[in-house]
Design goal:
This protein is an all-alpha fold. The longest helix is centred in the first third of the chain and has 18 residues. The protein contains 6 helices and no strands.
Length: about 100
């Protein structure tokens, strides 16, 4: 179990990625995940820690939100702001996945 209030932003991003990966592999409907209080609390905690995330974690978060179908404008805008500020440190694969995530 992850204790959200003591976990790093990177750990929380990894948790979101694992949840999205599970949903994708199981081909499950993600509407229940999007509505879950725990998911929304996790995303809110990640949003507060966005400035502390590295390029890979930003990519993981954007991919996770796309897979789950989480389209909250404030979260996506905050991720965009971080990505644009660090685009030079991102690998081409990170950029491609992040762009796909926002296009989905």
């Amino acid at each position: 179990a992850i204790h959200r209030h003591r976990a790093s932003a990177k750990t929380l991003a990894f948790a979101a990625h694992r949840i999205a990966r599970y949903c994708r592999l199981r081909r499950t409907d993600t509407s229940a995940t999007r509505r879950a209080a725990r998911w929304n609390a996790l995303i809110a905690d990640i949003q507060r820690g966005l400035p502390n995330l590295d390029a890979q974690s930003l990519t993981d978060v954007s991919w996770s939100l796309a897979v789950v179908g989480h389209r909250e404008p404030r979260v996506l805008s905050a991720i965009c702001h971080q990505v644009f500020g660090r685009v030079e440190e991102m690998a081409p694969a990170n950029i491609a996945i992040t762009v796909w995530s926002f296009a989905t």
